[in-house]
Amino acid sequence: MSFLGYVFMQRALIAGALIGAGAGTVGVYVVLRGFSFIGAGIAHAAFGGVAIAFLVGMDPLLGALVFSLLVAWGIAYTSRRAAIKEEVAVGVLFATSMALGIFLLSFIRGPRVDLLGYLFGNILAVSSRDLVLSFVLAGVVFLAVLFLYKEFLFIVFDPGMAEVAGFPVGLLQGALLSLVALTVVLSLRVVGAVLVAALLVIPAATAYQLVRDFHKMVFLSACIGVLEVIGGLIISFYLDTPSGPTIVLLSASLFGLVLLFRKGTR
Amino acid sequence: MSSVVELRGVWVDFGGHPVLEDITFSAAAGEFVSVVGPNGAGKTTLLKVILGLIRPRRGEVQVFGVPPWKLGKQRARIGYVPQVEEVDPRFPLRVLDVVLMGRYGALGLGRRPGAADRHAAVEALKLVGIAHLAGKPLGELSGGQRQRVFVARALAVKPELLLLDEPTTGIDPAASESFYELLRRIQKTGVTVIMVTHDVGVISRYVDKVACLNRRLVVHGRPEEVMADAALAEMYGCAALFFHHGRAPHMVVRPHSELREGRR
Ligand SMILES: Nc1ncnc2c1ncn2[C@@H]1O[C@H](COP(=O)(O)OP(=O)(O)OP(=O)(O)O)[C@@H](O)[C@H]1O
Ligand SMILES: [Mg+2]
After folding, report:
1. Structure ipTM
2. CB contact under 8 A, A150 and B104
3. Can you tell me whether residue B193 is helix, strand or coil?
4. Which atom from ligand 1 is nearest to the alpha carbon of B198?
5. Going by CATH, does the domain composed of B1-64+160-228 fall within 3.40.50.300?
């Protein structure tokens, strides 16, 4: 029986396509703004949210959503106030929420919590309820990028000028980081908290090597994201490996190939 | 007559130190004002006050009759060329896309640039003489060409008020000259131009009004007045003397101490 014959695989593949397209698109802004570290910070915060949700008996993905959105706005606010560098804020949050997550989860007795699944991704884990949430999250991400396409481009390329032109740069920055948070939560089941950040970076970085036009880069990065997540899922099905690392390794290989064979420097 | 820009008794502090002191200044519609002064004098700060990016500690600022931080959509009437454009030159954007950003403010949230905006961007590129570079990635331009792109972006706004912070930095002399000619043509159409510059040649030939700034500001009428003005020495904390050689004036700057010791 081929992988398409399994219901869990069908769900994982549908979720995977949404994840690849979402992370590929949002990743362009992340890469061009140098937000890679922030993506990692938000992902770890999401894991803290999962743990808290388990403790209070909430849906873990909803917990992750609330927590990572809070952190996204926290980072946006801190960086606006410029009291401390955003990297420092992220650096503190990064380890703290991870520690909090694992600390809290150690108190949970009874039904075993799929800790590894939330850390590294599990293709068996996508329930039909998760799939619905994936559609909602991906829908919000795509609509937001569609509506605020030029605004996000403006604040990423030249926030100072965007401010001069009268755009609410702080709010837009928060909105963009919220999209990072949504993408993280979207990817949590399949890719896992530890490795989501890679998915936000590698497809966009690969596209960046290939084109020098922003609009083409967005399109290409989304396509590469879909290919890599789907490809990684299929490989992980046959090799029986955790889906997150498989996807990331496939992505990194493709990135390496492009780096080797692309003409010229940039 | 209402002025386009009006500052009354404006004070700005950075970290408890005054950077602008009691600035009173106005620019009428269609006026060409240049702001001169030594490094750290507060020239860029003055432009940022006019843009509403810095709120003064004391005093009143009005642009188009309202405080600049309350301009809202009217901000789209201002074109701005910053002193240093802190953008990543390897950002994957084509020249035309960068110039199009000048149109974003007028479009407002959520609306994409259309054919009219693209047309305005191409026109702006023609004005600064680099229409042939429209399709090039920003990263493949020379420094001077990139500077012209940012000037074009400010012009694409079709501004009524144009603020330029040392816009000809890195632009070759011939191109600078035609750029000043261009500014004058733009000014003739009723646009108010405020330009920070160290280029004295431009002051004498194009400008209506010279604002000498060194924390405090003294406004002069015609450039000739500046050159005769002894107060300028005090302003700069060093002597700035203008000498005429034929038609092109030169500025010579010497440390104040040297002056006082009578070694001129
Ligand atoms: N963000 C800031 N924080 C603290 N001090 C500042 C800030 N920006 C400017 N300053 C200080 O304010 C003073 C005026 O700076 P400004 O940039 O306005 O000078 P300028 O006249 O434009 O100089 P230049 O000719 O070098 O461009 C300087 O002493 C500078 O150190
Ligand atoms: Mg300056």
Report:
1. 0.86
2. yes
3. strand
4. 25
5. yes
